[in-house]
Design goal:
11 helices; about 525 residues; about 45% helix; flat; 14 strands; disordered N terminus; alpha+beta; ten-stranded antiparallel sheet; single chain
Length: about 525
């Protein structure tokens, strides 16, 4: 094989044209153009072998494409003549060059591979005519634009990484952290600590406000992982209340708040009073928030209405305690920072709860505190069962103690007690000695927010219940009035009809000569038969 040099041959440029005819329809799919400068000494007429072949394999491949295009064209002879004229060659010279290229590639073992590439290229070009309209569609253009933008960003990033590796690594870490935060924020509020390192992490903490579903799911998973509830309270101890008293009070352990004496003597109506005591024997901290609910006074002196309002108030407070809706109406800026959710484990029918609050967690973020019910007392139900007098005060109390994995160790008590002035609501947080205690400011904010929410929920629910009952009474009164009016109108119509019938009968008997033979209906009655009257 002879190699081409710059003095004898130029670069071949191919524009392939295929002409297909079907039922007198000609479709142009390719354009063929080739430029070639032959060496006169290599011509067949001068005794040469047709000249050398190109050294570039890409140009050799283009010769194969030209050969395949000529063979697959509608008129191979005309196509061969056209290409030869474009390059100032004869048909024999062009055909000889294509044949020598074919044989040379076959001898070198490269023919099969190149022919496969050429056939695939031709097939793609033939299909391009049918898919050209789809390629120009709007979705494909958008995909192409997005792909090009992504590739450009990748290239730019690779260049920046190669130039500034440290800055690029830091930027990549920040970008990854941002994407993970966007993904985890709506799911769990971005957990930043789980309490596994006590010196640095006190308990489960989230950076943002945790969803309420995540709180319940976390508590249930902790229950399943530990095989039950694990209390975080210190061991219980018994201490005498007074020197002369033989009864003891429990300090620490589950149910310790049941022996506390909550002082609500200075509670005022409509205001939340907070008392904090750190001097109680056996306790590190006792914080109580109390308020008083009363029925608004009206000018109407109706005892039944007042009794009904009081009953509605009692039912509303009792329903709130039973449904554990303690954080429905958190006032002010703390509206989204405090959440409480109670749930029931169906396996052993044990009640658990979860509590989250801002500033309770590590680094001043949202702290999650798991809880479990300690006890529940309802004197109102007991009095009904024992058939006591209705003047006995209503008392409803429920308490929850802390579990492991939280931020403090204590018991949270919710108490509703009926007094002569109204219904007293109090929330108490008791921390025994040896247990972790939150700051005084945080404890006071916790119990005052819960007390305000319960009071507001009770008032709103009472107003809703009274409004529904009032509407129901009004509807019943209107319905009774309409029914009475309809019955009166029906009676009057029936009375008029009876009077008209009697008048017609009287006139008929007076004016009819055959009154004994014919009936008012027109049917002749049998002689001596029974008399049918109205």
């Amino acid at each position: 094989m002879k190699h081409i040099n710059t003095s004898t041959i130029a670069v071949i440029i191919l524009y392939i044209t295929l002409v297909c005819c079907n039922n007198n329809v000609i479709q142009t799919t390719h354009a063929l153009e080739a430029t070639f400068t032959p060496n006169p000494e290599d011509s067949i007429e001068n005794g040469g072998d047709g000249g050398p072949l190109p050294v570039s394999m890409q140009q050799r491949k283009q010769l194969l494409e030209l050969e395949a295009a000529i063979i697959n064209s509608q008129d191979p002879a005309a196509t061969l003549n056209h290409v030869a004229q474009q390059n100032n060659m004869s048909q024999e010279e062009l055909a000889g060059m294509l044949e020598r290229n074919h044989k040379d590639l076959q001898e070198s073992g490269q023919l099969e591979g190149m022919m496969g590439e050429v056939n695939a290229s031709l097939a793609a070009q033939q299909q391009g005519g049918g898919s050209r309209s789809m390629a120009g569609s709007l979705p494909r253009r958008i995909i192409s634009l997005v792909t090009s933008i992504i590739m450009a960003l990748i290239r730019t990033a690779s260049v920046q990484i190669s130039k500034n590796p440290k800055q690029s690594t830091l930027l990549l870490i920040l970008l990854t952290a941002t994407l993970l935060s966007i993904y985890n924020a709506p799911k769990n509020g971005i957990v930043i600590s789980s309490g596994v390192f006590p010196p640095f992490c006190r308990g489960h903490t989230t950076l943002l406000e945790p969803p309420i579903d995540y709180l319940e799911r976390y508590s249930v998973q902790s229950y399943e992982r530990n095989g039950g509830w694990i209390s975080s309270l210190p061991e219980a101890t018994n201490k005498k209340k007074k020197k002369k008293s033989k009864s003891n009070k429990q300090v620490g352990g589950v149910g310790m708040t049941s022996s506390l004496d909550i002082d609500t003597s200075n509670v005022e109506e409509g205001e939340v009073t907070v008392n904090t005591n750190r001097r109680v024997d056996g306790y590190t901290l006792i914080t109580t928030a109390s308020t008083l609910l009363t029925i608004a006074e009206t000018d109407e002196e109706d005892e039944e209405l007042q009794l009904e309002e009081i009953d509605c108030m009692h039912e509303s407070i009792k329903a709130i305690i039973e449904e554990r809706k303690f954080t429905e109406f958190i006032p002010g800026k703390d509206a989204r920072s405090l959440k409480f959710r109670s749930f029931l484990i169906e396996d052993d029918m044990s009640e658990g709860a979860i509590f989250s609050m801002k500033l309770l967690g590590d680094f001043g973020r949202y702290g999650i505190q798991p809880l479990c019910i300690s006890y529940e007392i309802d004197n109102d139900d007991d009095s009904d069962e024992e058939e006591e007098s209705t003047s006995s005060p209503m008392t409803h109390c429920v308490a929850f103690h802390t579990l492991t994995g939280g931020h403090f160790d204590g018991e949270l008590q919710f108490l509703v007690q009926e007094t002569t002035e109204g219904d007293g609501i109090s929330v108490t947080l008791a921390i025994p000695k040896g247990g972790r205690a939150p700051s005084t400011r945080l404890a006071e904010s916790m119990v005052s927010s819960l007390t305000s929410s319960i009071a507001e929920s009770a008032l709103i629910r009472t107003k809703q219940t009274l409004a529904r009952r009032s509407q129901s009474k009004s509807y019943r009164t209107q319905a009774t009035s309409r029914a009475k009016k309809k019955r009166h109108m029906r009676f009057e119509q029936e009375k008029l009809q009876e009077e008209m019938a009697a008048e017609r009968k009287r006139k008929w008997k007076r004016n009819n000569k055959d009154v004994g033979r014919y009936r008012p209906t027109g049917c002749r009655g049998p002689s001596g038969g029974p008399k049918f009257g109205f």
